[in-house]
Structure formats: structure tokens, C-alpha cells
Design goal:
single chain, about 400 residues, 13 helices, 6-stranded antiparallel β-sheet, alpha+beta, globular
Length: about 400
């Protein structure tokens, strides 16, 4: 059987999308009309960015002269490079994919195969007389109907089996309890109800995956406690409801600035933590505005700060949001496009250029350069900033819960 692989995007606008690659195939990635894999929503992807190919059972990737480069596991490639299963390939600002061997038994793979075959037949029908291809098309339709029907019937039998077992469970529990037993003994033998799912933990994992970042370890109960503590503090006395009202005034401008840079809009909740959506918010250290820019950092990203002329664009919602989006993009370029947790952490301390360079140096030296591996080497205030932002994101993802 010929080699076959699947390209699966783990981050970016095509998150969770898959594309097949067969022996001798090559797929171009970019924004151009000739690209087989279109990444139009990623701001930093070039028109013709890179090409992935499968030759003699080996995967290869080649950068096609893109503006921002192509990276394998965080390292920029300069020439055609071999890909290994599990390697992370990063393009542009957000887009990241991995390759894995094709498995026809997975439902998603089967659906992809069917779609590919239907597409191939459609293309051939455009090129050849349709009458000659009708038998092939009808045969393909018949195979699809049979397999889908068999899968549906098998799934129905499994669901019926599961429902039967669930309906039998309470009966078995009551049979074990003797009629002559004292009431207190009967109460102790009543089956314990199922523990509800850990909502906060599930949300932490969901947000991590949304960013294309690694979630924390399942044993990391301390991190979850910090997130829960911040949620409790933010929602105490319904204080968060006032912030919901303030957010509605500025969210569209914040969202637009982040989208323009190809960033997820959830990063906008840094404003919740930094200034509580107050454009005039100030800090004792001299930070000002929604995004709490220091004067030097604000100037670095094009904001005018001239107190003698009574000009300070840090209070301008649109301009400061665009500057913040550019700043976050810079952090992601330094730390890696799938390391949003590190970018969020460094936002707290990263306005200090020396500290930002020190963090970047630690990342380059680390064997596993993500937030969870590096947090013991980062300032405590910077580490504690991440659960604070995650708490704000979780509250806004589930406003009906609080």
C-alpha cells in the first residue's frame, strides 16, 4: 500500500482541519488562489508561503520565499527539510500543523477519503464525457451509502446496548439490599451519584487548546486553585457585571485590532485584568490606558506620549489597541507562535526590554520551551498573571454561570 499522511492543523484559523497527502503529492500553503491549503485569515502568511510533499514515503517541507518564514519546532528552515511525524510546523502568526500517518479506520479519515474520491470523479467528469463515468460515480455512491448505513446501524446497536446497561444498573443495586436490613444500613448502600465534571479544569484545557498551547498537567491542582480564586474575586458582589457593561463600549475596537494582527480575540481580556476597561486607568509605575502601556513601550509601538503638549495616545482606545496587538505579535515572534501562555505571562513583565530578552533567552535554552516547563524560572508575579487572565477569559466565556 502506498504511503499516505494527514496534515492536521493544531492552531490558527484552520484549527482541527485535516488534509490528506498521498505518495507523490505536494500541497502549497498560502493566501494565493493557486494554494491547495488556503490560510487567508492568518495575517502574516504570504501569498505563496510553503510546500509540503510526500516523496518515497518521506515527508518534506520547503519555504517558498515567505516574508515571515517557516518554522519546524520553533527553528526557521532555510531549505527543503524532512518532516518527522509529530513535528510542529508554524507559518505566519497563528497557523501550526502536524503530520501523522493516515488511518482509514478513523471516521474523520473515512469522510476525508470519500470527499477526495468524489472530488476526483467530479474533476474527471468535467474532462471526459459524462456518460462514460456515470457507472463509476453510481458505484461510488452505492459504496458510500452501504458503509455509512453500516456505521449508523453499528452505532445504534452500541447506543441501545449502553442504554440497556444503564437501565439495568439501579435494579442490580436494589437487589443487593436486603429487605430486613435496618434503614441506616440501606442508606449507606445507596450508590454514590456520579461526580460532576470539573468545569473549571475543562475550561482551562479548552482555552489552552484554543490558543494551540499545551494545557497544564492533570496533577496541577495548585494552578487550578489560583484560577478559581481569581474567579471568586472577580465575581464577588457581582462586580463583574459592571465590567460586562464597560466591556460592551470598547470590545469591538479591541476585537478589530487583534483580528487585524491574526490574534485570538480572547487576548482582549488582558484589558479586563490591566485596567478593568477604563481608558483613563493609571498605575503607580506610570502605566496608562486600557492596556497599561509604559511611556517608552507606547512610543516603541507608535503612540505619541508628549505630556508637555498635553498629548497622550495611550488613552486612545483604537490606537492603543492596535499598539497592544502589535506588541503581543512581537512577543509571540520572540517566544513561538503557539506559546500564548508565555506571551500572556511576559506581557506583565515584558515591557522591560531587558527582562523580555532574558525570558526569550531562557526559552531558547529550555528542552521543552512552554509556560509549564519554564514557570519555575520566571518571576512569581509574571507566573501568577496567567491564572488571573485565564479567570477573566473563563468568566467571559460563560457569563450565564456567574
Amino acid at each position: 500500500m502506498k504511503s499516505r499522511f494527514v496534515i492536521r492543523f493544531v492552531a490558527g484559523p484552520l484549527h482541527d482541519k485535516t488534509f490528506e497527502l498521498g505518495e507523490g503529492d505536494a500541497r502549497t500553503l498560502g493566501k494565493g488562489e493557486t494554494s491547495a491549503i488556503r490560510l487567508d485569515e492568518d495575517a502574516l502568511v504570504s501569498r505563496v508561503h510553503a510546500r509540503v510533499s510526500l516523496e518515497r514515503g518521506m515527508l518534506w517541507i520547503e519555504d517558498l520565499g515567505s516574508r515571515n518564514g517557516t518554522y519546524i519546532n520553533g527553528k526557521k528552515i532555510e531549505k527543503k527539510t524532512q518532516l518527522k511525524v509529530g513535528d510542529k510546523v508554524t507559518l505566519g502568526q497563528l497557523s501550526c500543523f502536524q503530520c501523522s500517518p493516515w488511518n482509514a479506520l478513523e471516521p474523520s479519515r473515512f469522510a476525508s477519503v470519500v470527499l477526495t474520491r468524489v472530488t476526483d470523479v467530479a474533476v474527471r467528469m468535467r474532462r471526459r464525457p459524462k456518460a462514460a463515468l456515470w457507472p463509476q460515480f453510481l458505484a461510488l455512491q452505492l459504496v458510500v451509502c452501504v458503509v455509512v448505513g453500516a456505521a449508523w446501524y453499528g452505532g445504534k446497536k452500541l447506543r441501545m446496548r449502553a442504554g440497556f446497561l444503564q437501565s439495568q444498573a439501579p435494579v442490580e443495586a436494589t437487589v443487593e439490599v436486603g429487605v430486613s436490613q435496618p434503614p441506616e444500613q440501606i442508606l449507606t448502600q445507596v450508590p454514590t451519584p456520579e461526580v460532576p465534571r470539573n468545569f473549571i479544569w475543562d475550561e482551562i484545557v479548552a482555552v489552552s487548546r484554543r490558543f494551540g498551547d499545551a494545557p497544564p498537567s492533570v496533577m496541577d491542582a495548585q494552578f487550578q486553585k489560583k484560577v478559581e480564586a481569581w474567579i471568586e474575586k472577580f465575581t464577588k458582589g457581582d462586580a463583574h457585571k459592571n465590567l460586562f457593561a464597560k466591556k460592551s463600549q470598547y470590545w469591538s475596537q479591541i476585537q478589530s485590532a487583534l483580528t487585524e494582527q491574526g490574534l485570538p480575540v480572547e487576548l482582549g481580556y488582558l484589558v479586563w485584568v490591566e485596567s478593568e476597561f477604563n481608558p483613563a486607568a493609571t498605575s503607580g509605575a506610570g502605566a496608562l490606558g486600557l492596556w497599561q502601556f509604559m511611556p517608552a513601550t507606547a512610543r516603541d509601538f507608535g503612540l505619541r506620549v508628549a505630556p508637555q503638549m498635553n498629548i497622550d495616545e495611550r488613552t486612545d482606545v483604537v490606537k492603543s489597541s492596535k499598539a497592544a496587538a502589535q506588541y503581543l505579535s512581537l512577543l509571540l515572534k520572540q517566544f513561538g507562535t503557539d506559546r500564548y501562555m508565555l506571551a500572556i505571562a511576559s506581557y506583565n513583565a515584558g515591557q522591560n526590554k531587558i527582562e523580555r530578552k532574558a525570558i526569550a533567552a531562557r526559552i531558547r535554552r529550555a528542552p521543552k520551551p512552554d509556560f509549564w516547563a519554564l514557570r519555575d524560572q520566571l518571576p512569581q508575579e509574571t507566573v501568577d498573571y496567567v491564572p488571573k487572565v485565564l479567570a477573566a477569559i473563563i468568566i467571559n466565556r460563560n457569563p450565564q454561570r456567574w
